[in-house]
Amino acid sequence: VTTFVNNFDTKTNVFFFTLHNGSVYVTFDGTTPSATNGHTLESPYSGWFNKIAIKNMKLIKHTGGAAIVAISQFTH
What is this structure's pTM? Predict the structure, then answer.
């Protein structure tokens, strides 16, 4: 299970999230994702998530190669 470290800039409000090379199961409530718990994100995927979602996000590989995930912080 992959999570993101909570060392974000204090002014960050939203994140731009991209997924390449494989699909993943994802949860946003701190539980462990699986085939029966959470959502599936299919590669390629890009979208915006708020800080709370990113802090609680957990990812695990579903299909394809090793997923490549990038997040970019945005403040306003």
Answer: 0.84
